[in-house]
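Hi R.,

Here's the chain you asked about this morning:
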Amino acid sequence: MRRDGAANREKVLLAAEHVFAEKGAAASTDEVARRAGVSIATVFRNFATKQDLIEATACRYLEKLTDQALALADSPDPGKAFASLLRTLAAAGPVKMTLMDLLPPHDDDGQGLSRPVTEAADAFRAALHGALHRAQAVGAARPDVTGDDVSLLLRALAHATDLSEGEALDRAVGIVLDGLGASPRGWGDRHDG
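And the predicted structure, written out as tokens:
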């Protein structure tokens, strides 16, 4: 792919992430093209259908979250890394859930999703579970907590959270972290009590 073609594809995916997050199923490819600053022909040259665009956007978003999780894996403090990851994922949750809800019906194991989406979701899940296991290994998270528990809590936060609820979200994440045993008293830099 030529450099300008790759740049246009990236612009389309970034615009699609925002448009789909804001408008859900009502989002149009015309709006994606307008926000990306490209023609509708450019959108369809890269993505034959709206569903292809949705899937590519979901994959890109999951890959971005996975990269963030893996970057935190190198942290010298697995407990702080896990807490930071949960805060990041809670804030990203509404966009992730909207994108995942736009995909074809699937079960909890991802059956029914395209192979690229399934692979991206599996990599994300593995990175999340890895961060949890590292925190557990140093006693920074309860040993009885599973990755599925964490995923469920993150989904609940995503469904209950509006993107504008910064302080409420931060408090809720702090409470979840306390329950997971993933944070010391005075759990975060942004909360005093």
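The first helix runs from residue 3 to 23.

Let me know if you need anything else.
M.
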